């Protein structure tokens, strides 16, 4: 599992991610000071998505990879502090244990 | 083969899985206290699906991976005890023998 | 090449396989006491399909993998004895020689 | 590069290959006593196809792999002697030299 | 991550890239003295795209790889000095740190 | 990167390549005494295409691989001397340096 954060993302970067999101939502979250990126195998990403969805102040999107139904990249949008906090929680859960996520 | 369990899954996580399920069923199982996830090669997953289908109190869905027809992730929905019991049975069968599943 | 057998398969497992079969046939074989599964590279699976087609009392289906045209999993339906016999023959041929199948 | 030959192929095996052939031809070659199979990377298969096309008494089809445009399996139909001779020629050319095929 | 630069690109090369770009823009940038190419895993490329978008005098396109939604190649169009400067910045950021991009 | 040349290609081989070419051109080049084949990762092939496009007397086509948008095989059509000269130039550039192509 690999984790990155983009601070003050450019519009072009947001567009690249928006063109590939899996959900039907078309609204961008209001405040996008930062984008967290999490990449990994599908089973890990379902777990990470659940952790991020339970975090406060962020919007989670699954970004389609090599084919429409493949989820290998999660993008987490929000203010910098909230994105950082969601990413820390994902990291902590991933290191904690293998079976329960 | 890799196994995980998500307790009290968020709605967003259930949505991500529902968007990718292989079957035509559109009803979510009534009680989803937990989601079991099993990932592996296709031949293993057909066997694991059979074990889970024979377990009590759970609903099994195959989640499409990198392409619509690829089944690499199984999601098992139900109350926590039933999901845990189905996952144990899958683990036990996988360790028991290679040819018969 | 990997070989498995599922005895008394559940309806859900049969459905998962039926949704992915390559041929246009829609009829399930009458007696499905067992399902043999054979997974491998495409060239091996064409050979295994030929061996199984020549066996008695079984129906052979190629199950689509990651993309519609990819054949990586064979399912062999029939009564337990016939499926076991077809799988043994596939195993024997695969071990016998590399060039002729 | 991997090479196999199926003697007296079953109708089911011919059907599996016919469903996946790349060309628009719908006619099966008249005499199919044997099917030669050649699997490899795309650049190798273009070369092998050229060798087989120049051989006498065989019909060459490229069988689509994991996606419609991927050519990783060649099927060579004809009487046994012609198929064997085409396969020998492919083997000989592949061993002879790397640059010219 | 792999980086290349093509100086005075031929029209055929520009056409190959234009046929595969992810965005809906159909206009070529006015001055294309050079094309920078950056290839890598999806998470790296989202970061590299953000760095390039913030650079001056270049246009960034994501070039679709093995399937429509897969972004593995970035093309950066512009005058030679601007492209070289954007590529240096991408290289510098990639070497600097792993988490923040 | 792998390079091959087919001298006096058969019509069947030309057809296989023509069915997979990326461009909209439907005309075969007038003189096809030889076909040069170059296979590699996408970033390498964009560079090789540029070198070949700048060579004299050859036509360059990108041949679609495992999926429509994937370019992993270049075919270079022309008289034998021109194809050989274009392939030498591609080889020379590839060995010369990594960054500039």
From TrEMBL, chains A, B, C, D, E, F:
It comes from the Bacteria. Residues 4-100 form the BMC circularly permuted domain. Gene3D superfamilies: 3.30.70.1710. Its main location: other. It is found in: Bacterial microcompartment. InterPro entries: BMC_CP, BMC_dom, CcmK-like_sf. GO terms for cellular component: bacterial microcompartment. Keywords: Bacterial microcompartment. This is BMC domain-containing protein. It comes from Hominibacterium faecale.
């Amino acid at each position: 599992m690999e984790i990155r954060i983009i601070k003050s993302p450019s519009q072009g970067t947001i567009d690249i991610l928006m063109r590939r999101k899996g959900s039907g939502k078309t609204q961008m979250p209001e405040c996008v000071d930062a984008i967290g990126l999490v990449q990994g195998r599908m089973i890990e990403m379902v777990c990470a998505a659940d952790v991020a969805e339970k975090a406060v102040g962020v919007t989670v999107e699954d970004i389609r990879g090599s084919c429409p139904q493949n989820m290998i990249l999660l993008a987490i949008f929000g203010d910098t502090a909230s994105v950082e906090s969601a990413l820390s929680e994902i990291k902590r859960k991933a290191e904690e244990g293998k079976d329960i996520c």
